[in-house]
Design goal:
This protein is mainly alpha-helical. The protein has one domain. It is 69% helix and 0% strand.
C-alpha cells in the first residue's frame, strides 16, 4: 500500500508538472510540440533518485543536446543528416561529461530538424530544465515529509521486490505446450 501511495503521489506530481509546462509554453507563445520536457518529467517524477534524474544530468543533458543540435545545424543545415549527427553528438557529449539524461536527446533532433535558434535553447530549454529540477526538488521534499508522518508509517507494507525476484519476473515467459510431432 505504501508503494501505491508513493506511485500516486509521483503521478499527480508529473501531471501537475506537465500542466505547468503547458501554461508556461502558452505564456511564452511557444508551440507545445517544441517544448521538450514530457519524457523528462516522467523520468524525474517517477524515478527521482536515479542518476539520469539528478539536477546536473537534467540541466547539462538538455544544454549539451542543444549545443550538439546547433553545431550540426550550423554545419549541415536543417535536415535528416543534421538530425542524425546532432543526436550522435548529443549522446557523445552526455557520455563524455557524465550527464546522461536520455530525454534530452530530443533537443538536438528538434534544433536540427526545425532550424531552431540559439534563443530557443534559453527559452524554453534552459528555463524549462531549471524549472523542472526546482519543481522536482520541491515535490521530493514534500514526499519525504509525507513519508515521515505517522499516518504513512501505519500503512501496511507493499510488495518487496528483490533484485532476484525482479530478474525472474523479467525472464518469465508464458507456458507453451510443446507440439506433438508425429513419427512417419
Amino acid at each position: 500500500m505504501q508503494h501505491i501511495t508513493v506511485y500516486l503521489y509521483r503521478a499527480v506530481g508529473a501531471g501537475l508538472a506537465i500542466a505547468l509546462m503547458e501554461l508556461l509554453a502558452r505564456a511564452a507563445e511557444e508551440p507545445l510540440s517544441r517544448v521538450p520536457f514530457v519524457t523528462s518529467i516522467v523520468l524525474v517524477m517517477a524515478l527521482p533518485e536515479s542518476e539520469p534524474a539528478r539536477t546536473y544530468n537534467v540541466v547539462a543533458g538538455h544544454m549539451l543536446s542543444c549545443v550538439a543540435g546547433l553545431l550540426a545545424l550550423w554545419t549541415f543545415g536543417a535536415g535528416d543528416v543534421a538530425c542524425a549527427v546532432a543526436l550522435g553528438l548529443a549522446v557523445f557529449f552526455m557520455l563524455f561529461l557524465r550527464a546522461i539524461h536520455p530525454p534530452a536527446g530530443i533537443n538536438a533532433f528538434l534544433i536540427a530538424a526545425y532550424d531552431l535558434t540559439l534563443k530557443w535553447t534559453i527559452s524554453p530549454v534552459l528555463i524549462g530544465a531549471l524549472f523542472l529540477v526546482g519543481y522536482k526538488r520541491m515535490w521530493w521534499i514534500m514526499e519525504e515529509r509525507i513519508r515521515a508522518t505517522d499516518a504513512f508509517k501505519r500503512l501496511p507494507e507493499g510488495p518487496n521486490w528483490t533484485e532476484e525476484s525482479l530478474h525472474s519476473f523479467l525472464k518469465w515467459r508464458p507456458y507453451r505446450k510443446k507440439r506433438k510431432t508425429s513419427d512417419p
